[in-house]
């Protein structure tokens, strides 16, 4: 069986940076150290950090003192203010691409645009972006949801960094049709776009696709969705153990990709197992 691994499978720049910062903080910091939500959306990596002493909390008010790591998805404006009030030592691992979206939203807010964030309204990254709209922004994950939004004549648009370009394009095109003045900042991360295009291409050349990554990872789920549209035989797994009950009868070519928050030490065992079949 021929096994092909996508060139850009695994950690993107932002995740790699966040992981490095978090591990260095765990090694060097004295006293309690917390993260506000999981550093990245990969349970195996988060568990490894917890084994080293990291405490993951969902509310910054749960942190009495010490060091707090801001996750790669970013935190909201109120949480930043609270960290300052509590005099916590902050390790800011927010992805630079997410920070750019924050910056654009502040610009749009200052210029009195109605702000639309193309993305999942429940995702921590989108929630962090919305916090900089001072309650005036709205998250739009699909064209169907857009139909429920009353648009003004001046609309500013940004995107969740892991959003599919096709969805972003569809929604922005419709907003342009409905409003007179539209200012668009394409904040989709290049790494996301490259991974999606590469995975779609690989799915078209394979009899089966394996997508590795956390089930709580939006970009991994999106890769799975895109690959499934091309190759119905697509499996989303977190670890190699989940492949043990899968049948590969008649499969000659397998494609392997992984979300941007998936470490190499979870990818390698999957590839080794597939090659051993």
Q: Could you please describe the fold and organization of this structure?
A:
The protein is of the alpha/beta class and 277 residues long. It folds into three domains: 95 residues, 3-Layer(aba) Sandwich (Cobalt-precorrin-4 Transmethylase, domain 1); 83 residues, Rossmann fold; 92 residues, 3-Layer(aba) Sandwich (Cobalt-precorrin-4 Transmethylase, domain 1). The protein is 42% helix and 19% strand. A four-stranded parallel beta sheet has the order 1-12-10-11, with helices on both faces. The protein has a four-stranded parallel beta sheet with strand order 3-2-4-5, with helices on one face. β4, α3 and β5 form a beta-alpha-beta unit. α4 packs parallel to α5 and α8 packs parallel to α9. It is flat and about 60 Å long. The mean pLDDT is 95.
